[in-house]
Specification:
This protein is of the alpha+beta class. It has helices spanning 74-80, 90-104, 112-123, 185-192, 202-205; strands at 6-7, 13-14, 22-26, 47-50, 69-71, 83-84, 124-125, 128-129, 132-135, 144-147, 150-155, 158-163, 166-172, 178-181. It is built from 5 helices and 14 strands. Helix 2 crosses helix 4 (185-192). The longest helix has 15 residues, at 90-104. It is globular. 36% of the residues are buried.
Length: 207
């Protein structure tokens, strides 16, 4: 049986066989020795998104140290409120921080813990996902919206429906009006400033 460690754009953890293209964690361990989840869904405010392989390290998934999580792609991870890891994805993490600095008009790049403080407020309302109402016309590529109980990623003039296996449908981006946005506002600003996330191949092929 697959572990309950696949992250949806809503930030939920589900058990499916597909693993995706990236992995990460939420700041530590919140699973039991029997490899089931506790009542918690994070261990700290450090929610990161990592590469699947780094320096040949071997991990015992859901072992002693932290609860490994998996993402279809980076827009999915960003929607759930994760940021790039400064260890295994340093170049991406530095680019993310620089675009954060530019978007917020800061004098220096923010430290990881400073971004984590902001993201923790924006991704959650208590223990549930925080949604943000925004005009759909103004959303940058890589943003996720909730429509009819499904999650859709914005890419150009199209929106792509998310599934655990990949994006299985595309349709024109609606015009006018506001929508429930899953991606935290600070990350929306990073995307709008020019940060380019890593997409799943199905984002191009349409399924």
């Amino acid at each position: 049986m697959p572990l309950q460690n696949r992250v949806t754009p809503f930030g939920e953890l589900i058990a499916v066989p597909a693993r995706g293209t990236l992995f990460g964690n939420r700041g530590g361990r919140f699973h039991t020795d029997a490899k089931s989840l506790t009542a918690r869904r994070w261990a700290s405010r450090q929610w990161i998104c990592c590469v699947l392989d780094f320096k040949g390290r071997q991990r015992d998934v859901w072992g002693r140290f932290y609860t490994e999580l998996f993402f279809l792609d980076e827009p999915t991870a960003l929607a759930a409120g994760h940021r790039p890891c400064f260890e295994c994805r340093r170049k991406d993490a530095e680019a993310f921080a620089e675009h954060w600095r530019a978007a917020q008009r800061l004098r220096r790049r923010p430290y990881a813990f400073e971004m984590d403080e902001v993201l923790h407020r924006e991704r959650l309302r208590g223990r549930t996902k925080r949604l943000h109402r925004r005009p759909i016309d103004a959303l940058p590529d890589g943003a996720f919206v909730a429509l009819d109980e499904d999650a859709f990623a914005v890419r150009g003039d199209r929106i792509l429906r998310w599934t655990p296996q990949g994006y299985d449908a595309q349709k024109p981006r609606p015009r006018g009006g506001t929508v429930d946005v899953l991606t935290p506002p600070a990350i929306l600003a990073v995307l709008a400033a020019g940060y380019e996330p890593r997409w799943h191949p199905s984002a191009t092929t349409g399924g």
